[in-house]
């Protein structure tokens, strides 16, 4: 199995894959903000939330639903800022995965990654990391 990457390129491919995985895990986890509401611990991320208040029509009161779940729709995300964050972070994770998988293929296929493609991938990777900063 021939490679089109140097030793430095192999390390870059591995670190790229680890970075993309960490970014995607962080994107999907609901623990971006932690706090409490109605004396219960709550947390939420861009499109997941844990322990959130709902209206109980039987009791005519607001109760805490102590489970994790995603928002029912994109408009259910609490604010426009969080909606933008969801889109930008998701696009960034997608770019990181694209570069990481391309680099991984470059470890296995000879002549796949040239100097120009490597520089372009580095630029794309930089753009993908900006939302995670």
Characterise the protein shown here.
With 133 residues, the protein is of the alpha+beta class. The chain has one domain (7-132). The protein is 50% helix and 22% strand. It has 3 helices and 4 strands. The radius of gyration is 20 Å and the shape is elongated. The model has no long low-confidence stretch (mean pLDDT 82).
Helix and strand layout, with pairings?
Blueprint: H1 7-28, E1 33-37, E2 40-44, E3 48-56, E4 61-70, H2 80-108, H3 115-129
Antiparallel strand pairs: 1-2, 2-3, 3-4
Helix pairs in contact: 1-2, 2-3
Signal peptide: 1-22
GO cellular component, one term: membrane
Transmembrane segments: 12-34, 87-109
Rg is 20 Å
Question: What is the domain tally?
Answer: 1
Which of globular, elongated, flat, extended, rod-shaped describes the shape? elongated
Contiguous uncertain segments of 5+ residues: none
- Describe the main β-sheet briefly: 4 strands, antiparallel
Mean pLDDT, nearest integer? 82
The count of helical stretches stands at 3
Distance between the termini: 36 Å
The beta-strand count equals 4
Q: In order across it, which strands form the biggest sheet? A: 1-2-3-4
In N-to-C order, the SSE pattern is HEEEEHH
Strand percent estimate = 15-25%
Query: Share of helix among residues?
Result: 40-55%
Structural class by helix and strand composition? alpha+beta
């Amino acid at each position: 199995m021939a490679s089109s990457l140097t030793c430095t390129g192999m390390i870059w491919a591995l670190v790229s894959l680890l970075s993309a995985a960490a970014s995607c895990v962080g994107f999907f986890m609901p623990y971006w903000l932690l706090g409490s509401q109605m004396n219960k611990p709550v947390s939420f991320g861009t499109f997941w939330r844990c322990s959130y208040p709902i209206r109980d029509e039987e009791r005519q009161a607001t109760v805490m639903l102590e489970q994790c779940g995603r928002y029912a729709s994109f408009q259910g995300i609490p604010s426009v800022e969080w909606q933008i964050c969801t889109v930008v972070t998701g696009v960034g994770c997608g770019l990181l995965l694209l570069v990481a998988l391309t680099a991984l293929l470059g470890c296995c296929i000879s002549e796949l990654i040239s100097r120009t493609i490597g520089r372009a991938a580095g630029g794309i990777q930089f753009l993908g990391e900006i939302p995670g900063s």
